[in-house]
Amino acid sequence: MDGNTLYVVPAMASEKVLGPGPVFPAGRLLGPVVVPPAPLAPYATKVPASRGRFHPEPESATRTCYSRDRDRIIHSSAFRRLKHKTQVFVQHEGDYYRTRLTHSLEVAQLARSLARVLALDEDLAETVALAHDLGHTPFGHAGETALAAATADIGGFDHNAHALRLVTKLEHRYADFDGLNLTWETLEGIVKHNGPVRPPVPGPIAGFDAQWPLETASWPGLEAQVAALSDDIAYVSHDMDDGLRAGLFTIAELDAAPLAGPHARAVTARYGELELSRFIGEMIRTLMSALLDDLLRETRARLCEARPDSAAAVRGQGRAMAAFSPAMQAGLDGLKAFLFTRMYRHPRVTDSMEQAKRVVAGLYEAFAADPALMPADWARACESGAAGGVVRDYIAGMTDNYALAEYARIFGAEVEV
Q1: Contact 142/353 with Cβ under 8 angstroms?
Q2: Mean pLDDT, rounded, for 149-166
Q3: How many domains does the chain have?
Q4: Would you say residue 60 lies in a domain?
Q5: Which of 68, 126, 230, 350 has the highest CB neighbour count under 10 A?
Q6: How many CB atoms are closer than 10 A to CB 414?
Q7: Is the dihedral of CA 56, 58, 60, 61 positive or negative?
Q8: Which residues contact 409 (CB under 8 A, 6 or more apart)?
């Protein structure tokens, strides 16, 4: 039995009895169905047309199905753990640097604002934004790289796929089912917010898709597309903020950066020398406004050309409907390259991340060799014979602090990251 076995969602009954009464099929909402009061665009995702939840359950009398999904994500253990998971800087380096949690909140704010202007379902856009990083390992991309390498023989690791596994299997909050029982549209957004899933499809996605197809080859609805672009806007903006505060690059160096440079120079020309926090605030404000204005213009132009009359028509376009203009995308790519060189590959960051990789790889090797080192419930799950998959899930759920503590417990040596 290979390690991917646990990544397959077990076959579930297509019908379920909710106590005494009728049998309800999966894939539809049970009443009451609360509809948002504001009129939505024809291409928006509509609550009455939702494909429902895998496990039928009565809907809330006070919330739409997507606002209910949002609340379930906010109250999940996985969401709370984002507080102590690395964005770029490890959490203990300073209180002002972003974590995965604060990043997710910033993305959600942008996604909701864009959805409102485009007459989309704001709750769904916010929900996908809040959930988009649920599957990240401790120590950011370095942790993911290390866990993917350690588990290459059992299918590797993908954070979007693991996010799906969290919300469909690993969260245990309800007596009637595993996971959070989110709507189809939210699950689609978690899996496909960056676009169609190209083969080979990661194990958790393929396993769930076999039970309830997520149409992985198509683009998602506009709410998920908006959430993905909000992620781009948020992380380049706040990474410049964090990078300047940390001294990884200077204002003079930022002046020459693609896309951000003109905004930085304009602030200096208008105000002269400012204290750093005021400079950052002014520069980020004008840059984000430019990115948002461009995104809205390009998206509206594409919608005007394609004229999709439903969310299904958006999925059937064969390309993204929400996008930056080619010129803005080129500038954004250039800014990302600047940040990659000056920030993500700065010795202060890479030295910490190399240590983080050692921690994740060491933990995987130790737990895979002796599952009894894990908590009892996780150790018991290894008795099925797929210990590698269990260990992968266990490590992926760790916070930075917990991973370091577990490493110290097992190896008797503390690692400074």
Answers
A1: yes
A2: 96
A3: 1
A4: no
A5: 230
A6: 10
A7: positive
A8: none
Residue 281 lies in a domain: yes
| Enclosing domain of residue 269 | 222-234+248-346
**Residue type at position 193:** H
148 occurs within a structural domain: no
CA-to-CA distance for 39 and 119, rounded, in angstroms? Answer: 7
Write the burial class of residue 274 (CB in 10 Å: 0-12 exposed, 13-18 middle, 19+ buried). middle
SS3 22: coil
Q: Are the CB atoms for 223 and 200 separated by under 8 Å?
A: no
DSSP letter (8 states) at residue 167:
I
- Tell me the three state secondary structure of residue 109: helix
Give one word for 269, left, alpha or beta, with left for phi > 0 and alpha for psi -120 to 50: alpha
Task: Determine the Cα–Cα distance for residues 220 and 164; give it in Å rounded to an integer.
Answer: 15
Instruction: Express each pLDDT in 117-157 by its tens digit.
Output: 999 999 999 999 999 999 999 998 899 999 999 999 999 99
User: Rounded distance, CA 164 to CA 152, Å?
Assistant: 19
**Count of other CB atoms within 10 angstroms of residue 385:** 12
Residue given tokens 């010129």 in the structure block: 327
pTM for the full predicted model: 0.90
Is residue 92 domain-resident? no
Can you tell me the distance from the alpha carbon of 368 to that of 147, in angstroms, rounded to the nearest whole number?
Answer: 12
**Residue 318, phi-psi category: left (phi > 0), alpha (psi -120 to 50), beta (remainder):** left
CB burial of 88-100 (b: ≥16 within 10 Å; e: otherwise) equals: bbbbebeeebbbb
